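@channel anyone free to eyeball this complex?
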Amino acid sequence: MDVELRGITKRFGKVVANEDVNLFLRGGEVLGLLGENGAGKSTLMNVLSGLYSPTSGTILLDGKQVTFNGPGDAIRAGIGMVHQHFMLVPVFTVAQNVVLGVEPIGRLDRLDLNTARAQLADISERYGLSVDPDALIETLPVGLQQRVEIIKVLFRAADVLIFDEPTAVLTPQEVDEFFEIVRTLRDAGKAIVLITHKLHELLEISDRISVIRQGRITGEGDPKALSEADLAEMMVGHALDFDLAKSTAAPGAPLMEVTNLQVSHDDGSKAVEDLSLVVHCGEIVGIAGVQGNGQTALVEALWGVRPVDSGQIYYDGEDITTASARARHSRGIAHIPEDRQRNGLVPNFTIAENMVLDTYYTSAFSNGLSMDWPAVHGAAAQAVQTFDIRTPSIHERAVNLSGGNQQRLIVAREMARDTKFLIAAQPTRGLDVGSVDYIHRRIVAARDEGDGVLIVSSELDEIMALADRILVMFKGRIVAEFDASKGHPDKTDIGLAMAGAPRASPTGAAA
Amino acid sequence: MSNTDHSPAMAQLMERAAPARAEWEDLVIVPIFAVLVALALGALIMLATNVDLATIGRSYVALLTGSVGSLNALSETLTAAAPLVLAALGLGLGFRTGLFNIGAEGQLLMGGLAAALVGFLAAGLPFPIHLPLALMAGALVGALYASIAGWLRVATGAHEVISTIMLNLISYRLLDYVLRLDWVQRAGRSDPISQSVAVSAELPRLLAWIDPNLRVHAGIFLVLGAVWFVHWLMFRTTLGFEFRASGENPDAARFAGMRSGLIIVLVMALAGALAGLAGANQVLGVLGRATPGFSAGIGFDAIAVALLGRSHPVGILAAGLLFGGLEAGGRQMQVDAGVSIDLIGIIQALIIVFIAAPLLVRAIFPWGFRRSADSSDKEARS
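replying in thread with the prediction:
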């Protein structure tokens, strides 16, 4: 099926999210849609999937004009969306999730799961999407959960599949498998839209690329004729120095030392097991690993918001195992939390208020009792400028900022003060290249000033770009260590370690 | 399934599209419309119960004159509003911090009892010492009583809704018990009633020089002081910053190094202090003694006042005055039109229903809700 978006404009009040966008999707073709955060990609796809109705413009399916009054219409018309955050019921089986909302009904209004299973098996076979229909979702790895999402869309007879950031949560191996699936779907005649920030993935898989900036299509092209630098330039509107120029690390004395750390999840299950690591001054240590292998609990324990079961954390020679988050903060440790919306910001607070969320009590911003708002506003205005946070005013609420600017706000708060150690969890998740580049530069600059940095990221590319030493975390343990100070280590080796392959790592397990 | 999952993202986008729209409209327009709809529905309810149109008209006229129509009416409105505003300020502080404290009733009773005890046990002290002492006793005991719920929440995770309800029930029985103690009970009485508060501990009546029946008393200065104090605390102090951050996003507050346990206990104590003051205000300014159930449901009405005032000190003051006016006017209505004062309860309840369902109000009154709000930006951010 061919889909044409013609002259789509979408306004929210005064804000123009999309302006006069023309887009053409062909059956049997993969269209890569590229754009910064807040560029209007998601709005455009929400228009296509019926969630929003456009302010003006038309949608044509195979040349016929259609109007969608809600997602139901779009699904019936054969347009399906695979969201970045999976929408599955964890305690249901694969088959139950797939039929949810379109259940085949047997006699006496009974749920006919056998028919569902048969249809599911048919889809699995046709597109090479093997998955056990009776497996519980919560027992499946992320890559398989994504397959279930795809099957869900195909089960609803979609001819157009929209993928929103599909590779964000996958290991390199899973990404390859995912691309295989995309190619199969394409060859079966489906029209596919891929939304992503990862330029090299787009170049690898797309047949055509459209770049969107500030709500308009600013560039289209053939991936074979384009380079990553070309795409990045189209996306942000100016040329970017793409390779992170990073001098060789000059590690100093050990700054953060963790010995035999044991940490539990809230439900009591083990999150971190017998983990030891050292971060020196002037060194970036990256922890690679697929999400959900204890990284979150490790970071929370290091930051003092999750109790440690056993083991010690030393910072600058001092035992801080039981120190509070504020005590760590005042000792010069900074923390960029993994979930910026939940843990990093108060969405309804202004930029100025968020900027002092962890320093409001210091003598710079209060006299111990009342807040010195003029000082807060002055510091916020300064930080907005220094860290290039794009906002109409420091009195704008944080929730109104784009993801990239929210992250800049957190980075500004954590790095503007004089710190010695930075814990950054997923510091650039979901951000556009411009912001990623900016934040990476800040992190490297902190290292060059002699700070110790611990990066935890599920994006292997990010770890590879930043880290001087790479640790791979799997099931709560460090299973491999790679020296990255002299060139990049082999990505396949790291990928295998991330997947928990029982294989001795080149330099052995971490000390 | 997936549809409902979209709505937060959608709401977020709408917010982005029209910044601060929700705040201005939620704070001002929705409450005004809610009151109008509630009054209209109140009239319909009277119609449905065979009250004729003329009487309905007379009752609403009486409601107006009884609340603002004369000096006495204003005096009654202020007298009724004072404890509501005091208790609601404390509740609003809790709501802003994410605590649903519904124990104002019990805190008010305990605080009022303490004020009464000091009021007659310390008789003989000069007025400038005795009155402040009695007020402080009320605030302190209210604070301590509320802290129990805060402490239970922090130490055991017991939800404050449950524990404050339980503490309300305990306070009723505790009050009954204390009122029958020899050194508390009024001489020669067998029913539970305390001795009278000494004149030196009374909140002086302000307009007694015009007419001794005008009941408005110095408690209204207490109210104004409390409104200012809570506003200052909430928006100008580091403590208020912690309260608001914890209420808006407890996780982020914890990650920023704020001590959530301490904040919970402090907020509960402050809320209890204000509720205790409300109790003291009643005992020292209106009743002159403590009796069983002297709170008369003020602690529960205050929840409605705090909700209507959107937990903002100025909003609470306005909402408290409205509820005080309904109370005073309702009594007049009963006298003039013979309509039961229960109607006031119904109208108050309807107001809360509509406040809680802004979409309903929007559906009834499509106008007044702007998409882009320029002026509202400043209003919403004080």
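from a first look: Chain B has a mean pLDDT of 86.
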